[in-house]
Amino acid sequence: MATSYECKLKVSKSNHTMPEVIYVEHDSKTGEAVVIDPFINHYFGEPIPAEVIADTAKRVTFGWNFENIASRQGPNIPRVRVKANILKATGEIQATVSFGYGDSESGFGTCKVE
Questions:
Q1: pLDDT tens across 73-90, in order?
Q2: Helix, coil or strand: residue 75
Q3: Which of 26, 85, 111, 112 is the most exposed place for a label (fewest CB within 10 A)?
Q4: Distance between CA atoms of 32 and 14, rounded to whole angstroms?
């Protein structure tokens, strides 16, 4: 049976790409996961696969990528990498968005688990 995470993040006012909410569905038996947030919904219109980077007794870490995303300002962004680390005991999440040119943004919050 899959575990669903509804994660709400606190992001700074200067944030450009860190979403305020991330939904992840993870089947620990198959190791498969999918993710959707407002950014994914805008560009893809449906959940996309996520990689399960780590799944231990204490935490689960997911990662997903986008390639050649259209930018609102200037040229396309060549690569966006998102990594989300969720602590199982507390539901705390730390997510980081890294861009192809070296910048990154982080957000912290909590997840409801179903």
A1: 667 777 789 999 999 999
A2: coil
A3: 112
A4: 33
Residue 53: CB atoms within 10 Å:
14
Is residue 106 within 8 A of residue 19, CB to CB? The reply is: no
Distance CA 69, CA 11 (A): 21
Residue with tokens 């040229």: 75
Contact indicator for 21, 8 with CB cutoff of 8 Å: yes
Positive or negative torsion for Cα 95, 21, 61, 82: negative
Closest CA to 19 of 101, 70, 93, 113: 93
Rg value, the chain, Cα: 14
Return the pLDDT at 101.
Answer: 67
Determine contact, residues 53/35, Cβ cutoff 8 Å.
Answer: no
What's the predicted TM-score (pTM) here?
A: 0.88
